[in-house]
Amino acid sequence: MFISYEEVCFIALHTLLCIIPLSHSKLYRLPNDHDFNRRNINSANSLPYYLKVPTNVTAIEGSSVILSCHIENLADKMVFWIRNSDLQILTAGLATFSSDSRFRVNHENTIDEKDWSLLITNVRLEDSGLYECQINTEVKMKLNINLTVKEYVEMMEMDSPFLPNYGAAIDGKNLNVLKRGQTITLTCKVLTEHENSNKHSSQIDWMKDGELVSLKTRSGGISINTVWSGKSGTSKLTLSELHENDEGNYSCTSNGFVSDAVTVRIITAMEEKFDQLVTTQNNANIRCINLTSFMYIFTLFLLNVILH
């Protein structure tokens, strides 16, 4: 393809006009000697680093699971989640690259800006394996998380700190942070020694801060669905259009068993505005970085055309 001299000049001028405003911005101003020396002195302190999280995670098939990745001092770097079994890039920053909608980064669902955990909904047995939380530093930094997915019956029968041989347990995280208006479903699973033969023994009750939760607890937007199969039962508590009154500690009880409590926290209006501001700023920074990378590549292309 032949490009005329006039076209090359026009493209070069247009590129120059795009680059000049960036060079005068605070984000991309040209460094002076003082900046260079200060960066050299602080380079060790400016690198991101991982905070301590569990690196071996076990989940029940069909539940939601979070692979934790908390990063301090991320700055303008980007976080990638990679599945090691097929080297599939699942997420890049806030964007999901996988066509499987069950995978997404949990950053927008939390008020903790250091939290770049991977959320997998409706987890499957084949999801078991090694996952990598990677930071695009000059020398790639990575944190490996091993996920083991077990069948419900297998998990109920195993001797583990997550669930006794007989008892009640709530799936998922101990702390759930959500925004006003969102929906949450808590799932309680119960395993008893004897099969339930009557309505009373097959009942699973939900408690909030020690008080019984019922369909009359709240004016709409609440449902409780309980299913039993032999010795095991599952109850789902769904709360939609969440508001501040839904905050609290939730537990479930059945046949004398009481689960550990999980906490539901609702972000206030002020916290939500702050979270939106931080997200907007992060997105703006990512767009600026992408634009600068594009300009750099495009300039190299122009120089190659001109020289040849």
Any overview of this molecule?
The protein is of the alpha+beta class. Helices cover 26% and strands 33% of the residues. It has helices spanning 5-24, 33-46, 152-157, 269-307, and strands spanning 49-50, 56-60, 65-67, 71-72, 79-83, 88-92, 95-96, 103-105, 118-120, 129-135, 141-150, 167-170, 175-179, 184-191, 205-208, 211-213, 222-229, 232-239, 248-254, 257-258, 262-267. It has a six-stranded mixed β-sheet. Strands 13, 15, 16, 19, 20 and 21 form a six-stranded mixed β-sheet that branches. Strands 12-14-18-17 form a four-stranded antiparallel β-sheet, with no helix packed on it. Helix 1 runs antiparallel to helix 4. The longest helix has 39 residues, at 269-307.
Give the secondary structure arrangement, pairings included.
Elements: H1 5-24, H2 33-46, E1 49-50, E2 56-60, E3 65-67, E4 71-72, E5 79-83, E6 88-92, E7 95-96, E8 103-105, E9 118-120, E10 129-135, E11 141-150, H3 152-157, E12 167-170, E13 175-179, E14 184-191, E15 205-208, E16 211-213, E17 222-229, E18 232-239, E19 248-254, E20 257-258, E21 262-267, H4 269-307
Parallel strand pairs: 2-11, 13-21
Antiparallel strand pairs: 1-4, 3-9, 5-6, 5-10, 6-7, 8-9, 10-11, 12-14, 14-18, 15-16, 15-19, 17-18, 19-20, 19-21
Helix pairs in contact: 1-4
